[in-house]
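hiii, so i know i said id send this last week but things got crazy w the move. better late than never?? heres the sequnce for the chain we talked about at the cafe, plus the structure i predicted for it. fair warning i was half asleep when i ran it
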Amino acid sequence: MKDIGLIVSILFTIFPMLFVTTTFTYIPTFGDGLFMEELSASMAGRDISLLIKMSPPVVTTETLKGGQTPLIQFRLSDTATNETLKHVTYLIEIEKNGKRLLLDTFHSHSGNLGIKMRPSSAEHITINGEQDPILAAYTGDMEHPVSATGPIFAEGGLYHFIVTIETIDFDRTFLPTDKQPVYEGWLSVGYTLDKDLQINGASYPIQTLSYYDILKNFTYDSPKNELQFAMPFDWNLDRLKKVNVFVHEEISIPNPSPLAANGYEGTVNNINLSPNLLMLDRTNSTKDVVHFMLTKPVILDLAQKVADNSKNNQNMTNEMIFTLSPSKNAVNPGSMVGPNSMNMSMNMPMNNGSGGGGM
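okay and structure toks below
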């Protein structure tokens, strides 16, 4: 089992850079998230924010198999005062890979709605909660959440949330359809991939964890002593400019092993990454845990280079392709941390950090 506390500390240390709220003057609003989205929209001159937050913040296919039931919070507030708006009716749709998993109406008198996710092998999702007979909506809050049981959060990857606000301030007063704010955001369920690599006749277990989307095409290039893997990714620059986006990939490498080294270097779509984009955690003396930490400025820079390397948009790749290899010279943040220190520096650079031979 992973050191969940350390992962949480990483997420919250970089949090201020990931989820900077942007006020849009149009509806709908968008995000591209990790465990939390904070989105804003304007309605008749009133700026209102929607918080979509998953608790606990680290949810993976591994923790879900262990019986974890994440709680999703929906909180509508006044952007200027951060005051929670009351008597909110939410029309919530959840999709994954273009497939609708849930579409239903929920209401919270306090404005702070909770939905408990209970993944199961059932064919369809069942909602459990008290229903308002007039609104035809399930009612709940964070203390008494509604529950959703079925094929939801059962797989790793991005889950697309589309939330329409139907009432604010008054239970029975519906907003005009063309005035209802619509928010779009994404939450991530970490995808765990375990591989046993055969190197020089010996077996080495490698665990890879993606907090963005499902991993595929995991291979080991023996002549280069290099790991390679990929995941789906939409490189459209216009989309990326509008959303909050962060990519976090985690690779656990046995130490000692032929892959273990003083430092590590990586690429994304054949573009060299700066060593400071690879965090190195050595708090467990038996393994090196390498974190690819790609913030929005880095991803925008990579997207521009991916576009430049493509002949035209029709040939644009729909994958983010990673490589990771040991390096004698690279110095990664956190690489000097010993087993008795938990104070790893997690301050992520705001510069692009990609291209060339790194910075």
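btw The chain has two domains: 20-189, 191-327. thought thatd interest u
miss u guys!!
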